[in-house]
Amino acid sequence: MKIIKGDQVKVLLGKDKGRSGEVIASFPKVSKIIVKGLNMFKKHVKPQNGQKGGIVEKERSILVSKVALICPSCSKTVRVGYNIDKNGIKTRICKKCQAPLIKKT
C-alpha cells in the first residue's frame, strides 16, 4: 500500500468528496485508512465504569482507492512511485515532480 500514516490525502469519492486530511491509521491487509476528521459517524455509547454515556463521533475507515495523496512539495494530488538508489534503499517519490515523499514521525 502506497499511502501510510502521516500522509495528507484528498477524498475522491463519497460524502466527503473534495475534502482533505491527515492519515491517522492505515490497514494494509484490507487496503483501508482512517483520515482525521473525515468520514465521521455517530455511535451511541452506554455509561461504563464511571464514564458518561452519550453520542460520540468517530472516524470510519476509507478504502485507499477512494483517496489520492497530496504531494507536500508541489501541493497537487499525485500518484506514488518508488526509486531505488545505489545502496538499495527504496524511497517513495511523487510521479509529477519527482520529489521524495518523506515519512513524518
UniProtKB/TrEMBL annotation:
Keywords: Ribonucleoprotein, Ribosomal protein, RNA-binding, rRNA-binding. Transmembrane segments: none annotated. InterPro entries: KOW (IPR005824), Rib_uL2_dom2 (IPR014722), Ribosomal_uL24 (IPR003256), Ribosomal_uL24_C (IPR057264), Ribosomal_uL24_CS (IPR005825), Ribosomal_uL24_KOW (IPR041988), Translation_prot_SH3-like_sf (IPR008991). The keyword RNA-binding applies. SMART domains: KOW (SM00739). Residues 2-29 form the KOW domain. One of its GO terms (biological process) is translation. It comes from the Bacteria. GO terms for molecular function: rRNA binding; structural constituent of ribosome. Pfam families: KOW, ribosomal_L24. One of its GO terms (cellular component) is ribonucleoprotein complex. Belongs to the universal ribosomal protein uL24 family. One of the proteins that surrounds the polypeptide exit tunnel on the outside of the subunit. One of two assembly initiator proteins, it binds directly to the 5'-end of the 23S rRNA, where it nucleates assembly of the 50S subunit. NCBIfam families: rplX_bact. Part of the 50S ribosomal subunit. This is Large ribosomal subunit protein uL24.
